[in-house]
Design a protein that fits this description.
The protein is α/β, with parallel strands linked by helices. It contains 6 helices and 5 strands. Helix 6 links the parallel strand 3 and strand 4. The longest helix is centred in the N-terminal third of the chain and has 20 residues.
Length: 213
Amino acid sequence: MTNFARDEFDRVPEVSSRQGVHRAASAPSRPKLWPILSVGFAALAVGLVAFLLLPQLGFQPALTPPPAAAAADTSAASAGPTATPPASATPSATPSASASASEPAPPSALEPAASETIAPAAVDKSQPVAIFNGTLTSGLAGRVGATVKSDGWVLGEVANWQGAPQQQSVIFYSDAAHRANAEALSALLNIPTLVESADFPTPVAVVLGPGYE
């Protein structure tokens, strides 16, 4: 107990709010984290958009070549001028080749080719011509044979055709050497069909087919 007299401050009600200098203790303040998190999420979103969209828009990051590749490019660039002069030998060789190609061949080189040309065989009316009647017209082979003989040909066998039935008139010749004779007879007798065959005893044989007059 003190020796001081009691005053108004000593009479404190049992149930009442505190008065005077008594204050409730405040909770310690915490730092706010949402601004820091917002900035982090925004930076992450910008980086993701740049990673996905910039390559599609044609923006490619510049790549620095490795030191070995840069050294190789430098050596190739320095070696380029030294390798270029040998190419100057190509123009000097080209005019000579074109000049030699433009020079005409000597006449002596062309003469053998002209002399090797095979002249067409001449008509030889001394070769015998056989006449065969492959129709049902009696005496047709004799009349055609008379026409051939009057044109200067040597007349061979004149008889009826004993072979396979013919669908048209045909002139047979034994080989290419007698084709000229066959063509001459074709013009004389108006028989356009010529066939090469060695089945006849004479070089040229005329077989008269149906419809020939």
